[in-house]
Write a structure and sequence with these properties.
Rossmann fold, eight-stranded mixed β-sheet, binds adenosine-5'-triphosphate, binds magnesium ion
Length: 271
């Protein structure tokens, strides 16, 4: 079953971390066992889950360079009801350490494989780059979820990301798929946003999630309280949207699994 998902977009500030945290909390609220991997040296997913990134005894950097096990490094987000593999700025050093390793894009995958069976979903919050760290994320994942804002330049960077996904699919991880695009920070009153949203639908068809996350100040306030938005104010429009998205993702994963089962084995092997 597909369950390891990268939340990726090389554009900065588009809502990756907000999506990773709130999707993790939404899936946990829907009864799923979730691990959130913070693959960004900014450590925002760690902090937003209520874990002090500088006080965590072990972190993802140590796991990637083989100084800690993933079992020892993960922590519980009591606030969110899911586990977190924490990070802080130390992780930026991993780029240099990894370059010298064999299988340098496979280190995260190897770590995740040790605990994969313990979870229903593993979400990876990627940094705003197409770096070796992000490659490690893409090499580990079954699929990519791309949060995007419906703005004029939104589509421009998207082709770079889609091409990177295709390259990783071809060369490193044949299982990798684009799961879908999630429209976030959406303001329906802005005509341009409606136009770009329609363009995205026309271009990507059923790869666009039906759920749309509105611009909602409660989602932006939540991290300063160390809480996912859906816990901070579960009745806010933003929280409801992420719960709906969690539900949609679970259904989509089930539908994909049924479709894969229905295909003859030869075709399955080739895809
Ligand atoms: P980076 O590229 O730096 O990792 P990111 O893509 O992870 O950024 P976020 O950190 O999730 O983006 O969001 C950027 C800013 O937008 C944050 O201040 C966040 O609180 C705010 N934000 C995200 N989603 C929403 C939303 N739906 N409504 C209002 N504010 C939002
Ligand atoms: Mg982020």
């Amino acid at each position: 079953m597909k369950k390891v998902f990268c939340i990726a977009n090389q554009k900065g500030g588009v809502g990756k971390t907000t999506t990773a945290i709130n999707l993790a909390a939404a899936l946990a609220a829907l009864g799923k066992r979730v691990l959130l991997v913070d693959l960004d040296p900014q450590g925002n997913a760690t902090m937003g889950s209520g874990i002090d990134k500088n006080k965590a005894e072990r972190n993802l950097y140590q796991v990637l360079i083989g100084e800690a096990t993933i079992q020892d490094a993960r922590l519980r987000s009591e606030a969110g009801g899911y586990d977190v593999l924490p990070s802080n700025r130390e992780l930026s050093g991993a780029e240099i350490d990894l370059v010298q390793m064999d299988d340098r894009e496979q280190q995260l995958k190897q770590a995740i494989s040790q605990i994969e069976h313990e979870y229903d979903f593993i979400l990876i919050d990627c940094p705003p780059t197409l770096s070796l760290l992000t490659l490690n994320g893409l090499a580990s994942a079954h699929g990519v979820i791309i949060p995007m804002q419906c703005e004029y330049f939104a589509l421009e960077g998207l082709s770079d990301l889609v091409n990177t996904i295709k390259r990783v699919h071809r060369n490193i991880n044949p299982g990798l798929q684009l799961i879908g695009l999630l429209r976030v920070m959406f303001d329906a009153r802005v005509t341009l946003q409606q136009q770009v949203s329609a363009q995205i639908e026309a271009h990507f068809g059923d790869k666009v999630f039906d759920s749309i996350v509105p611009r909602n100040v409660r989602l932006a306030e939540a991290p300063s309280h160390g809480l996912p938005g859906i816990v901070y104010d579960r009745n806010s429009r933003g929280a409801k949207a992420y719960i709906e998205f969690g539900d949609e993702l679970i259904k989509r994963v089930k539908k994909d699994a049924l479709r894969d089962q229905a295909r003859p084995p030869v075709e399955r092997r080739q895809s």
